[in-house]
Specification:
Helix content is 36%, strand content 27%. The strands form three sheets. It has an eight-stranded mixed sheet with strand order 3-2-1-4-12-6-13-10, sandwiched between helices. 42% of the residues are buried. The two termini are 21 Å apart. Helix 1 packs parallel to helix 2. By secondary structure, it is of the alpha/beta class. The protein is globular, with a radius of gyration of 17 Å.
Length: 264
Amino acid sequence: MLTIVIPVLNRIELTRECIRHIRENSSKHIPIVIVDNGSSEDVRKELIKIGDKLIALNKNLGVIPAMNAGWKHCDTDYVMFMHNDLYILEKYWDSRVENVLGTVPNVGVAGFGGGDEVAKNGWRLNFSSNLINAEAHGRRIRSNYIPSVVQDGMCLIVRKQLLEDMGTIAKEYSIHHFYDYDLCLESIYRGYKVVTIGVSINHLGWQTSKGQEYNSLLREKRTSDSALREGNRKIYCRKWENRLPIHVDSAFNYYNARGPIQMK
């Protein structure tokens, strides 16, 4: 049901640990596609060994282009985009994910941390997860899954058909930021549900923004991480301005300012 896509750029120690956790805690072998955004030759040689397929890009194009380069090489029902600083701690996590995707009809996007509301200004509210420090970020999930509006980009499990219908992820944006929220709203307004699954995880966080390569790319684009985030938030709000705010109830009923949103 799943193929995992992991965009990387050097930082091999993160990718090594990320994949080790996947392999040790999966119930079966899951294909892993690594999209390399221009790592060194030594790193690239190891990436070939630890993944099932390596897509080698000539230079750093950013997270969003790497995701778009990866999903087209997947032939499973769902594509699971992961940051390489996310460590899955739960034994047989994939069985839980496949159970949820098989139980909840018409899931477009799932993940391991999300909010059940997006405000008019574009920011998510009421973040829920089963992070090791979940309470520091919001609420801990006490059930198998909960309905959501948006997912955090650390993990996005996306229906392949949705990706094919869209053609490309977050075409209005560049490099990083708000692609995760945008993808979730694309899912909802095409009639698909968004769900947060209570898998136990550890997310180191902020590894992209701290990276030397990412900051070099920002300098090349004559911007900063905060400016990029704010610019993409404005693009996001303009795109969805007539359909925000949006929230979901416990029965997967979605509402915006105009009322109920029609689902599949």
